Amino acid sequence: MFILIAMGILYARLNTPQESEHVDKIIQNPSPTTIEFTKVPSQTLPNGWKLLWADEFDDVGATLEKWTIEDLVAQQNNELQYYSTNNVKVANGLLTLIAKEESARGRNFTSGAVHTKNTFHFLYGKVEMKAKLPKGQGIFPAFWMMTNKEKTWLPEIDILEMLGQKPNEIWMVLHGLDENNEKKTVSQSYIGENYSETFHTFGLEWTPTKLTWLIDDEIRFETTDYIPHEEMYVYINTAIGGNWPGSPDYTTQFPTLFEIDYVRIYQKDEVK
Questions:
Q1: Total-model pTM
Q2: pLDDT tens across 7-31, in order?
Q3: How far apart are CA 167 and CA 225, in angstroms?
Q4: What is the pLDDT of residues 143-189, one digit of tens each?
């Protein structure tokens, strides 16, 4: 009985407003040794790329007018989270998506997600995000693009997916369509350093003939198969649980933070 009472007290302590206060303190007072920002984007890059769209997340108290913040109970892949608008914050030059162990809308976990479906979509370009990824069993951060068409999710380009229990491995994936309009998938993973410890850049160059994935400006995967030729929008989220990452366990430490320094999109004149 004593053990049960003690466990109940511990559970209550872990699910009080103290957790929210702790998260806010982390966001408002980041470690100065871990964050370096380049907050003035280059208007041009080598090979003819010109800045088309960007968000540097510099504005204090920004409303994220360039994004839609999800308010959604996840229905795909047996995921466990409710995407809450309360789990998306902008402070100190960062967009932060927070994953928590808490009950809301019939789920035991909450998280954050943003996208540009209603605000910005484009055809061909170079996309780059600088971010520090969350880790932990069952934590599943992703930076991806999806077709702007209704009633379908294909094609989809996953610029990065990471299983939180393997924070040194980045997956780069294309879910495309062949000439018969059937789903085809090509993918590659890259094992590098621990991407949850410091900020890194994750990019994609999308042309009419090729997709090229880059990590810290180094090419890590390329394909010429099933290239999308339709406008797409950007999506950033942290899923929790699901078929691939599995559920969180006793080793998973909440809250987790997906910290994004910037998102930038470039385009070439000849493919506009």
A1: 0.87
A2: 443 434 344 455 555 566 555 554 4
A3: 28
A4: 999 998 877 889 999 999 999 999 999 999 999 999 898 999 999 99
Burial class (CB within 10 angstroms; exposed 0-12, middle 13-18, buried 19+) of 15: middle
Domain 36-271 carries which CATH code? 2.60.120.200
Pairing, β 183-191 against β 94-104: unpaired
Pick from 228, 266, 255, 197: nearest CA to 81:
255
What CA–CA distances, in Å, run from 43 to 72, 177, 217, 267?
35, 33, 17, 11
**The token pair that represents 195 in the structure block:** 């991407």
Taking the mean position of all CA atoms in its chain, how far away is CA 145?
10
Contact 124, 220 (CB under 8 A): no
